[in-house]
Amino acid sequence: MAPSLLRMSSALSLFLLCGASGLGGPTRSIASPGPDVRKPMEVNVTILYDNNRFDPHLKTAWGFSCLVRGFEKTVLFDTGGDPHILLENMRQLECEPAEVDVVVLSHIHGDHTGGLGGFLEKNPRVVVCVPGSFPGEFKRAVMSLGAAVEEITEAREIFPGAYTTGEVGEGIREQALALKTSEGLLVITGCAHPGIVRMVRTAREISGENRVCLVVGGFH
């Protein structure tokens, strides 16, 4: 049964228009079989980082990050551009770095990857899913901090109910995250440089779910 009761915690804002800006260990797969029967769970998406002020207690900056709870694994999607802002907003929103299992990075721009190093200092026991086109130096830096790297090239399921679109685009190559819920597909994008329609279409195709209940992130 797909997780249900989709809830959006709007830490800063639901959507942003983001722009361009310019990081030897084990590699392991995060794919694992799920239980045959699941109880309905609440899906919670918390926006951790963007440039639109929603709460005066939270810091804003150009970039994007969000936390997804309610699935088999807790996902941090993108890390914003500044680790201090990311970690302070996580603290304010009672989101512990230790609860994250998987980090998904949408594309190479620094306003989406710049917070990763600081985050990994708090929790290196994660799998970081990066587009295969990321520089080898970036991947080695991630592994040197103790995390595992999962290279993503093609669209596929990364754990039960969660799919990557694979690398989309011919210029700036980018992946989006698609999550199945009982209300339909939740699609999270970093900037959607290849086009938001193209990325959502790819998410529908790989997940087999035509209903889209929510699209969150950057809409270039």
Explain this structure to me?
The chain is of the alpha/beta class and 220 residues long. It has one domain (4-16, 41-218): Ribonuclease Z/Hydroxyacylglutathione hydrolase-like (Metallo-beta-lactamase, Chain A, 4-Layer Sandwich). Helices cover 19% and strands 28% of the residues. It has five helices and 13 strands. The protein has helices at residues 83-92, 110-113, 116-122, 136-144, 196-207, and strands at 4-9, 15-16, 42-49, 65-69, 75-77, 102-104, 127-131, 148-152, 156-159, 162-164, 177-181, 184-189, 212-218. A seven-stranded mixed β-sheet has the order 1-3-4-5-6-7-8. A six-stranded mixed β-sheet has the order 2-13-12-11-10-9, covered by helices on one side. Helix 5 links the parallel strand 12 and strand 13 (212-218). Helix 1 crosses helix 3. The longest helix is centred in the C-terminal third of the chain and has 12 residues, at 196-207.
Catalogue the unreliable spans: 10-40
End-to-end C-alpha gap = 33 Å
Tally of alpha and pi helices: 5
Q: Percent of residues in beta strands? A: 25-35%
Order of helices and strands: EEEEEHEHHEHEEEEEHE
As for the number of domains, it is 1
- Assembly category: single chain
Which CATH top level class fits? Alpha Beta
Shape: globular
How are the strands of the largest sheet arranged?
1-3-4-5-6-7-8
User: What is the percent of helical residues?
Assistant: 10-25%
